[in-house]
Write a sequence for this structure.
């Protein structure tokens, strides 16, 4: 239900979109996305450090870079079920033993 991949976010004012995407694709990136506030580079888990190293030749720092689990399919929930799921996710994140929480629920529509 999830794929393990590398994710890199770069501030839009650090580099031009065409230049960043060209470097990323030539280094083997799986996908390049123009988000609202940043550019997102998606890599295969195995290629993450190679692509990150290539990007670091042009960009000193990234907003975010990590290996994470991305859902293959998103699930839409009714508002009441979304709120209950959000409570469970928040409770999990508060546990000291939990490092990361990933979900395939579409929570973007919650306020």
């Amino acid at each position: 239900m999830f794929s393990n991949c590398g994710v890199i976010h770069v501030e839009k004012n650090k580099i031009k979109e065409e230049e960043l995407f060209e470097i990323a694709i030539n280094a083997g990136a799986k996908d390049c996305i123009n988000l609202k506030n940043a550019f997102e580079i998606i890599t295969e888990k195995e290629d993450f450090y190679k692509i990150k190293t290539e990007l670091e030749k042009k960009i000193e720092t990234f907003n975010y870079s990590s290996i994470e689990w991305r859902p293959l399919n998103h699930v839409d929930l009714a508002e009441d079920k979304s709120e209950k799921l959000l409570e469970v996710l928040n409770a999990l994140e508060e546990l000291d033993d939990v490092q990361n929480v990933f979900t395939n629920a579409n929570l973007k529509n919650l306020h």
